[in-house]
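Fill in residues.
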């Protein structure tokens, strides 16, 4: 998305995070009504129309799953935790499944209904889990069509990490 913005507006320097923040602000502030947002979305990405999205959804998910499957079978060992004891090795297939479920769940969840994510302690084990999920995540991000989808993928990944770690999630949702 950052590359697309740089091509369209080469004179404006903006970071990817800044773009995400701007999109989030526009969506939350209700600057545009739903029909205007849909018209702008169709202008920006011609293939993101309702019919095209419905037709492309299944093949895209199958392609993502195939790419993730290829990334899953790279050998990665979950490191030891902070007190030096060796943590149980998590099954990569289970981690991939958790990641995929969280991403699919977040794609259909409105921003205001997403759970609050807890802060996770910085430990060797937690970093190892994130490093294990990163190669799986890349395949989803490569086929992301817009910032909203990218946001859902990243939030889904964060949710997957919390679930893998067994962190408690607030189901109350965000206050906007």
């Amino acid at each position: 998305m950052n590359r697309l913005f740089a091509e369209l507006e080469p004179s404006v320097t903006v970071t990817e995070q800044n773009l995400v923040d701007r999109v989030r602000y526009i969506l939350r502030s209700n600057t545009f009504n739903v029909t205007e947002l849909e018209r702008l979305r169709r202008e920006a990405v011609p293939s993101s129309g309702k019919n095209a999205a419905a037709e492309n959804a299944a093949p895209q998910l199958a392609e993502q799953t195939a790419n993730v499957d290829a990334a899953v079978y790279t050998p990665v060992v979950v490191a030891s935790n902070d007190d030096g004891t060796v943590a149980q090795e998590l099954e990569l297939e289970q981690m991939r499944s958790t990641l995929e479920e969280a991403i699919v769940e977040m794609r259909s969840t409105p921003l205001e209904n997403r759970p609050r994510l807890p802060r996770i302690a910085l430990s060797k084990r937690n970093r190892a889990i994130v490093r294990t999920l990163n190669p799986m995540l890349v395949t989803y991000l490569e086929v992301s069509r817009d910032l909203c989808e990218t946001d859902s993928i990243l939030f889904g990944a964060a949710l997957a990490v919390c679930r893998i770690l067994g962190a408690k999630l607030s189901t109350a949702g965000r206050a906007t």
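The two ends are 25 Å apart (CA to CA).
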